[in-house]
């Protein structure tokens, strides 16, 4: 069995090497993400271990079919960037790693909520030029606020568990109701109901065609004045231009964005000293009440280890036994 892994960072290598030794399977490690430039490397391999937020296009699946690839095992959660129809059409089964560490993303979400509420970016900026005054940046306490959790899957529930310890009032929306949260009366009937009640709204749903720009001008207009928005899910959930207008008017009091709809040319690239040719990004990034991070909510040693090991196990289980663990696309 031969495997090839794309987008392999230095911090992942020890987990790949260790797994290789324990399982006696050779894996070709490619540092670059799968792309037009390197897709021909897949020839001669049985399975691909992928990781990326850049698109997995139809042409890639056509090339995978031609190369005799039997499985694409992605070592992350989101599948919004994958042409799933093309995978089916070309008979390429896909697995993912749906629960590598909900806590990693949840802990980061809480970090960003707290930083926004306590104005850390503003104080850091003031202190950088020796302004140590308190006023006017007084904070509110999270134990007096209502946090709206949109999406109560693995990550949303991990966020709720952490919020419980902070004494926050929590409301949630998800078309699917988790029985335990239902018993606790946590659900509101619609996003609109959440908009009316929440001081902080944190997004934890996958990006789909239906929820593209879920938070748009109409949504912001229904929210409480000064609401804080947290997005550690996917950038396309927020209309960034509408967010800018809502920040300008004060309707939105702050935002923490770990994902951004046009993030691909920016996040996880070293652009030191370069002008970023994205006025929307620059506008958001320059604001002292907007915290932008480069899609790092997942980035912990625990998560990375699980991502690598589970993805490799998914691929080999399928190649050895034909059994799909964590199926995204199944082929009859
Ligand atoms: P999950 O599948 O366990 O839960 C998603 C939940 O969202 C489900 O309960 C679903 O019913 C709900 N949902 C779907 N559409 C909705 C809508 N329109 N409104 C409200 N709820 C809706 O997924 P998860 O593990 O909790 O992950 C959520 C998302 O987080 C992923 O899809 C991915 O996009 C993102 N993510 C980001 C990072 C990061 O590093 N920033 C890391 C991992 C995952
Ligand atoms: C995911 O797992 O979906 C993420 O957003 C993490 C990223 C490394 C792709």
Automatic annotation (TrEMBL):
Coiled coil: none annotated. It comes from the Bacteria. InterPro entries: D-isomer_2_OHA_DH_cat_dom, D-isomer_DH_CS, D-isomer_DH_NAD-bd, D-LDH-like, NAD(P)-bd_dom_sf. Residues 111-297 form the D-isomer specific 2-hydroxyacid dehydrogenase NAD-binding domain. Keywords: NAD, Oxidoreductase. Residues 8-328 form the D-isomer specific 2-hydroxyacid dehydrogenase catalytic domain. One of its GO terms (molecular function) is NAD binding. CDD domains: LDH. Belongs to the D-isomer specific 2-hydroxyacid dehydrogenase family. This is D-lactate dehydrogenase. It comes from Ligilactobacillus araffinosus DSM 20653.
